[in-house]
Specification:
By secondary structure, the protein is an all-alpha fold. It is built from 12 helices and no strands. Helix 5 packs across helix 6.
């Protein structure tokens, strides 16, 4: 286990050198906006979400503001994003619950967050990490693919991948590691054709080393 932990630390150090600017790429001004943006980002790109929220957040800043909209009106405002009907429904239901149970504030713990409509574990971890500064590893498609491909995790299950990453990485590195793995997945370790020829961590990568055999 100790060798795996040391190897994981070396991987993260290499990725920190490669992506010194790694951070959340969703635009937001507070935890409520982050929660909305993260819900919208499911099966969509951060770039597309930012295009939509730039206008949306200019006019609608609080749960009360959003509840002034009918579901069809919100659907129209987020139509460019995938699954926009379900997302509009969940966002409005979520805003009602935030007002009724949490005085309009976003809760800062996993159990309360995942009880909200449209909020799964990945979304909750993004909000905890980026909104509240609580160490967390949100496992999206990039984190799942890269972690299992290079050997930081060994699972076909998202939750188990999260647990394995939490075991192998120091807690104070969880949030940054999440961003580093995402950036690596977007820039080099792509799903269909990873750019192994320019990857800085091939010597620590199970996928690359298996290809050489």
């Amino acid at each position: 286990m100790e060798n795996r932990q040391n190897s994981a630390l070396l991987v993260m150090e290499k990725l920190k050198e490669e992506y010194p600017e790694a951070r959340c790429q969703l635009n937001y001004n507070n935890t409520f906006q982050l929660l909305i943006a993260t819900i919208l980002s499911a099966q969509s790109t951060d770039k597309k979400v930012n295009e939509v929220t730039e206008e949306l957040f200019r006019e609608y800043k609080t749960p009360t503001d959003f509840l002034s909209l009918a579901q069809t009106e919100l659907e129209e405002k987020i139509r460019k994003i995938g699954l926009y009907r379900n997302k509009a429904k969940h966002i409005l239901e979520m805003c009602r619950i935030l007002l009724e149970k949490y005085n309009g504030e976003v809760p800062n713990n996993m159990d309360d967050l995942i009880s909200l409509p449209g909020v799964g574990r990945k979304t909750a971890n993004v909000v905890l990490s980026n909104g509240f500064g609580i160490p967390a590893i949100a496992v999206d498609t990039h984190v799942f693919r890269v972690a299992n491909r290079i050997g930081l995790a060994d699972s076909n299950n998202v939750l188990e991948t999260e647990k394995q990453l939490m075991d192998i990485l120091p807690k104070d590195m969880w949030s940054l590691s999440h961003h580093l793995l995402i950036w690596h997945g977007r820039n080099i370790c792509e799903a269909r054709k990873p750019k192994c020829e320019i990857c800085p961590i091939t010597e620590k990568c199970d996928y690359f080393n298996m290809k050489k055999v």
